[in-house]
Amino acid sequence: MKLHINKFWIKKNFVWLLLVLLIGGIQWACLHPFFIEKFYSTQFYGFYAKMLRGLTGWIKFSIGDVLYILVALYFGYSLYRLAKMLVQKNFSYLKKILIRLLKIGSIVYIWFMLGWGLNYHRLGIAYQLGLNVQPYSTDELCVLRDSLALRLNTLRKQITADSILPTPALNDLYKESPQYYNQAAILHPFLFYQNRSIKASLFTPYAKYFGWGGYYNPFTGEAQIRTDMPRLLIPYTILHEMAHQIGYAGEEEANFVGYLVAIESRNAYVAYSCYSELYKYVFNELLLRNTFPDASPALDSLVKHDFSRVNKFFMEEQNDIAPQIMNLYDVYLKANQQKNGINSYNEVLGLLIAYQKKYGKI
Ligand SMILES: [Zn+2]
């Protein structure tokens, strides 16, 4: 059989053909985690993200946030035009706009996947450390909780005997965090970090409606931090977002990488920030399992005091919008290989228990 390929047709539809081929290639790669781990996450992505951070890191404000505002404006304008075309029954123009939106949507999808999204499909940190992550029992969870409580008590005393924690300057935290990564990279070379690009989120005043503490922008390589949270939460949030920057897309992976870095930081405040968050995950998981343990049996009163200050902050800003946004984020995570959606953050516990079993410490 002889195939007759019309050159004119190919030339006319070249962009669409290229888009379909790229999307097909991405779908194929998603089914091959080893390929992604070996050639994408630890090779191409590493260079690409470092270059992005080099381009945006020296600018004081978040370029990515400005980009998001412009995209939202464009999206709003397009919706307005679509509605206008519908009312005027101008279907030929309507078709033109829809085709254009489809093309832009495809390009953004390809850009997102090649620029970061494929990391959702890598083998990841458990593979790199040879951890055997298994479902864990409630007893194992309680052992972990008690180990974390001991670490929290010790670290809290090292920071200060005062009931109020110090508030390190944000800029110092931004500057020091790459050093912590590079300290951890002595043990785990894949954590090596270059070209800092960590910034305050321009959306901080509205963060309570979104429910996040930080986020990574895969189009600009920047890590944005919500800066009005209790300072205790910020060091670990920075380490979490930096883990995304170096290619750990899964939320549980970013949490675990943040932990690996915090324990090597030789900074009691940073480690305390990390253990506080991990303790919260254990506590939430015990609640999810309908196990209602004594709230914090071994926690020092100063630690309890710090926790209640953090809780008070979030209680005071409760609103009706944040849960809706969280539902949308849950859908996004589920569409990106995070089958437990918003509860993926808790999956760090499986990694921690496997780590504790392998290395005998936490
Ligand atoms: Zn994250």
The averaged pLDDT comes out at: 91
Q: How many strands in all?
A: 3
Helix and strand pattern: HHHHHHHHEHEEHHHHHH
Bin the strand percentage.
under 5%
Query: Any low-confidence stretches, pLDDT <50, length ≥5?
Result: none
Strand order of the largest sheet: 1-3-2
The main sheet comes to: 3 strands, mixed
Q: Could you estimate the helical fraction of the residues in percent?
A: 55-70%
Number of domains: 2
Pairing-aware structural class of the strands and helices? mainly alpha
Determine the number of helices (DSSP H or I, runs of at least 4 residues): 15
Ligand types: zinc ion
Structure in a nutshell:
The chain is mainly alpha-helical and 362 residues long. Helix content is 65%, strand content 3%.
Structure description:
This protein has 362 residues and is mainly α. The protein folds into two domains: 115 residues, no CATH class; 234 residues, no CATH class. The protein has 15 helices and three strands. The protein has a three-stranded mixed beta sheet, sandwiched between helices. Helix 4 runs antiparallel to helix 5 and helix 8 crosses helix 11. The longest helix has 26 residues. It is globular, with a radius of gyration of 23 Å. It starts with 6 loop residues before the first helix and ends with a helix. The model has no long low-confidence stretch (mean pLDDT 91). The chain binds zinc ion. Zinc ion (ZN) binds next to helix 10 and helix 11.
